[in-house]
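Input structure tokens:
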């Protein structure tokens, strides 16, 4: 367990379970808790000044998102990075997102298109976290007009699972201007298809974007050392 990896959450107005979920997820996505690292439920509860009950419930949520594995409710392990797991996440994303984006294009409104354009403009910002959030909102906004509540619940889990790969494998703060421009062009291609009102072109552009991300992440993971929670298959260190 990393010393003071977590902050106490008592005194907040939202539920303790929600706060623990957010705090542990933040620690995983920022690499405070590394892939493959085991931590104690009791120690987590102590650091956050809570009983074990909300802590265990929050960890069960995170296990459902594919971020951790619980061990007999006494400890948890951050799920290791693996190409197999990555491919599983992206195979589902490629089944869902291109089709929803295509359907959304058929009911597009000027306000929706303008929001997408503004989010791409935000990619030029200097704050890596703000750029990250703009990217997430772009993908959410792109599918939202055609998405059901279940679509969004499913995508939320897939995005959370994919985010740990992109955050841990890429250091966005070190991405140079040329790479940022390349990524902006990828999303602009999607937006251009939206402007044309071509559902087929949007479907193709989103699928190509996701496939490119998957391929690049898999290639980078394959070059990481085997130590430190990187595996060739899920769960096998």
């Amino acid at each position: 367990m990393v010393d003071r990896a977590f902050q106490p959450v008592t005194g907040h107005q939202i539920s303790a379970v929600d706060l623990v979920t957010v705090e542990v997820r933040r620690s995983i996505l920022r690499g405070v808790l590394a892939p493959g690292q085991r931590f104690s439920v009791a120690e987590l509860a102590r650091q956050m000044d809570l009983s074990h009950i909300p802590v265990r419930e929050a960890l069960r949520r995170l296990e459902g998102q594919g971020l951790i594995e619980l061990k007999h409710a006494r400890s948890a392990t951050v799920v290791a990075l693996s190409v197999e797991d990555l491919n599983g996440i992206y195979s589902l994303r490629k089944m869902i997102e291109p089709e929803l984006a295509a359907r959304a294009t058929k009911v597009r409104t000027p306000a929706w298109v303008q929001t997408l354009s503004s989010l791409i403009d935000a990619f030029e910002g200097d704050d890596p976290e703000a750029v990250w959030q703009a990217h997430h909102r772009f993908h959410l906004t792109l599918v939202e007009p055609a998405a059901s509540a279940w679509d969004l619940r499913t995508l939320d889990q897939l995005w959370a699972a994919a985010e740990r790969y992109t955050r841990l494998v890429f250091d966005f703060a070190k991405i140079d201007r040329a790479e940022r421009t390349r990524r902006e062009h990828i999303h602009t291609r999607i937006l251009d298809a939206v402007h044309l009102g071509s559902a087929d072109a949007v479907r193709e552009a989103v699928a190509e974007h996701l496939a490119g991300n998957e391929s690049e992440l898999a290639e980078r993971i394959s070059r990481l050392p085997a130590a430190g929670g990187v595996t060739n298959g899920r769960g096998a260190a």
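Confidence is low (pLDDT under 50) at residues 232-237. The first strand starts at residue 38 and ends at 40.
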